[in-house]
Amino acid sequence: MRAFSPLSGTIAERIAQIRQTVPNSVRLIAVTKQVSVEAMREAYAAGVRDFAENRVQEAEAKQAKLSDLTDVTWHLIGHLQSNKAQKALDCFQWIHSIDDLKLAQRLNRLAAQRSHKPQSLLQVKLLPDLNKYGWSATDLLQDLSALSQCENLRIQGLMTILPHGLSAADATMAFQKTAELANTIQQQNRPHLQMQVLSMGMSNDYALAVQAGATMIRLGRILFGDRST
After folding, report:
1. CATH number for the domain including 192?
2. How many domains does the chain fold into?
3. So what's the pLDDT on residue 1?
4. Mean pLDDT of the chain
5. Which domain holds residue 190?
6. Pairing of strands 50-53, 27-31
7. Burial profile 20-55: b = 16 or more Cβ within 10 angstroms, e = fewer
């Protein structure tokens, strides 16, 4: 895949450029890990209403500083440790990174005790990657019966993060396989398992993801520049 090339201009101009290249039906989620609240306010002023964080603690701090932005939707996209599950339910309306059955069942038990039920996605890993979490296709299909009992999670679809360094052809294939897996699950008509949402595609591959059927794209560097880590 070609090297990442940041867009020029202000944050607002970058957002406008991206919106011209993707359908209105695709939800643009700004990934704000290590991004200042000032930059986030610029994105908000440009129309962004979805912010994603990798860590619960960083989200808590930013939410306190942005409490006046009452129409923001917060997304968790990083790996969630079981001991942070309760706080994640407090901080996020969407959890993209439910990556195994044990975590799903814990979140489901905790969500049963509250009126707020999170919108959730199941993270899949369809190509080998030691640095990523998620179900393989085979393991996810085996766990569907148990996942269909997690009625408090409002499972809406799948999320995937691709390994680094893929060619455009391999990235496209991985996105297509994710879409095909979602379709396979949807055809089973299992209770509490909807597959209408595909969260896939980041700064260097979002265009390929959109072509393969992404309904959410998660953009960080292309909007805000490189992070320190």
Report:
1. 3.20.20.10
2. 1
3. 47
4. 94
5. 11-224
6. parallel
7. eebeeebbbbbbbbebebeebebbbebebebbbbbb
